[in-house]
Specification:
The protein is an alpha+beta fold and about 110 residues long. It has a domain of about 80 residues. It has three helices and four strands, in the order βββαβαα. Strand 1 and strand 2 form a beta hairpin.
């Protein structure tokens, strides 16, 4: 259980730095307003496709609540853009190989190009 987890390390004076619970670890907020568009969005992006606009928006909202960027990837018929071998799939695989999550701007670019 995270409430009993300890995150720690050693500082230069050999004292232990620790957070006794996950709630004590500071959260990193992703930029959400248009003024922040010029900065690099550190939030990994997840494409969401569906035929029901309300359901798709509910899923995007959940994705964003857990700290990711939910990106509308169109209809179910358009999910071919995410299939193995597609530029989007290759970009996700390459990002994972490099341990650098795909960001929202790049995901939108790939969706627009396909």
């Amino acid at each position: 259980m995270l409430s009993n987890a300890t995150v720690g390390g050693t500082s230069s004076d050999s004292s232990t730095i620790a957070a006794s619970t996950a709630s004590e670890i500071p959260a990193i907020e992703a930029p959400r307003d248009s003024a922040d568009v010029s900065r690099v969005d550190p939030t990994p992006a997840i494409p969401v496709a569906g035929d029901d606009a309300n359901a798709k928006q509910a899923v995007i909202d959940l994705i964003e609540q857990i700290g990711f960027s939910g990106i509308d990837a169109g209809t179910l018929a358009g999910t071919r853009r995410q299939q193995p071998g597609s530029p989007l799939y290759v970009a996700f695989a390459d990002a994972r190989r490099r341990q650098m999550p795909l960001r929202a701007a790049r995901l939108r670019e790939l969706l627009a190009a396909s």
